[in-house]
Write a structure and sequence with these properties.
By secondary structure, this protein is an alpha/beta fold. The protein folds into 2 domains: about 180 residues, Rossmann fold, CATH 3.40.50; about 35 residues, no CATH class. Helices cover about 50% and strands about 15% of the residues. The protein has 13 helices and 8 strands. It has a 6-stranded parallel sheet, with helices on both faces. It has a two-stranded antiparallel ribbon with strand order 1-2. The two termini are about 20 Å apart.
């Protein structure tokens, strides 16, 4: 049975990496379209003032706690989140599963050439995965029907959407009735890591939940965006109730 907690209105699933992976596999066995998001503190804060994003989060089939701030906030307010479950690690386990179960994928998003390179690297590591297609995220609104038709034509099991948050969440939610796939997952910058155009933080940063700090050190121009985490934590500390 699915268990979630609300953090400033956004439902976050109480999962471990293993239980999130099991949930994902169960979604693949369903006969209806399912979708998975990977919210962090920035997304939760945006959703407070973005009705369409909040609707997307509330209607999804799983929202994994991808931000260390969410887990810390849960511990402070005793909400029950167990551990951080990162989108890139869950995507890795899903790809491994797809390899031995011979499932198919499609990658949508990223700059021109990124989805193609990510697909190439994934195929090299997991030769049994059926890569049904890929397309960059630089398409216009009037091209969306063609994009969806192209995906549905090849009918992949899993659609990885890397349009960046919150665009990818809204896009999946908006087109949920038109997409002919089993599961869609918003994966953001994960595709850049698979393509080799971005590097993941060293293991020690991952263990300590400081990947955001590593990214800030590597990309200092992201400073304003990175302020979302300290702002979130201050709000958590002064709030009596965050589960509403």
């Amino acid at each position: 049975m699915r268990k979630t907690v609300k953090i400033y209105g956004s439902p976050i699933d109480i999962v471990t990496m293993e239980s999130a992976f099991e949930r994902f596999k169960n979604l693949l066995d369903r006969s209806v379209f399912s979708y998975v998001y990977t919210p962090n503190t920035e997304i939760v804060m945006k959703a407070k003032n973005d009705e369409s994003l909040m609707k997307a989060l509330k209607s999804s089939d799983m929202n994994i706690p991808d931000g260390i701030g969410l887990v810390i906030a849960s511990k402070i307010h005793r909400l029950g989140l167990i551990e951080r479950v990162t989108g890139i690690d869950l995507m890795g386990k899903v790809l491994e599963f797809c390899d031995y179960s011979r499932k198919s994928i499609y990658i949508l998003g990223g700059k021109p050439g990124v989805a193609e390179m990510a697909s190439h690297n994934i195929q090299e590591k997991y030769p049994n995965i059926q890569i049904k297609g890929y397309r960059d995220g630089y398409f216009k609104g009037e091209e969306e029907n063609d994009v969806i038709e192209g995906i549905n034509e090849v009918s992949p099991d899993i659609l990885f959407v890397a349009l960046g948050a919150p665009k990818q969440e809204k896009w999946i939610h908006e087109h949920r009735k038109a997409l002919g796939v089993k599961v869609a997952m918003g994966v953001g910058g994960c595709v850049d890591v698979w393509a080799g155009t971005a590097k993941r933080a060293p293991k020690i940063f991952q263990i300590l939940g400081l990947e955001w700090l590593y990214r800030l050190l590597k990309e200092p121009w992201r400073f304003k965006r990175m302020l979302a985490l300290p702002k979130f934590m201050i709000k958590v500390l002064i709030s009596k109730n965050i589960s509403s």
